[in-house]
Write a structure and sequence with these properties.
This protein is an alpha/beta fold and 183 residues long. The protein is 39% helix and 23% strand. It is built from 6 helices and 8 strands. Strands 1-8-7-2-6-5-3-4 form an 8-stranded mixed sheet, with helices on both faces. A hairpin with a 2-residue loop joins strand 7 and strand 8. The longest helix has 20 residues. It is globular and about 45 Å long.
Amino acid sequence: MKLVHLNSVKKLPRLVFVLGGAASGKSEFAEKLTRASDLTPIYVATGRVWDDEQKKRVGIHQSRRDAAWQTVEAPVELAAVVAAGQPNQALLVDCATMWLTNLRMDDLPIPPALETLLEALAKSAAPIVIVSNEVGQGIVPENAMARAFREHQGRCNIALADQADVVVHVVAGLPMLLKGELG
């Protein structure tokens, strides 16, 4: 593995998958990577505000983005937003984990939604950076719902990594290249 240096990025690949643990620095890296392109940055927000802690977290993310960013909310209909991406835009999807959470909370079937998203990612005219949480490196959850979610998230991450041109794993704010090249 090698560390990623954003100053060497000249062109954003078609699909970049940024993976890491909670509060690892993955979103901040993805924002900087998206802004390194000369394209219009589109922040595709998948999170819903469930409580005050989530509201604060969303506020932190918003405070890092300048006026150049456009924001599109896509808590469930992510594939439609991705499919509508234009060649002059760079889409940052933050994040796949919140999208899966929303599907689960709305009692929507995850496998067909993931398949639709993967098709949209393959067809989008815009380069895309998609962020996701690595949830499989912790303890085995004690309840069936959490174990099922962990399984869905793991399958989602595998599918996204497989389809991505570039995969970056962020640990402690350090972006490490797992697949492909940025440059």
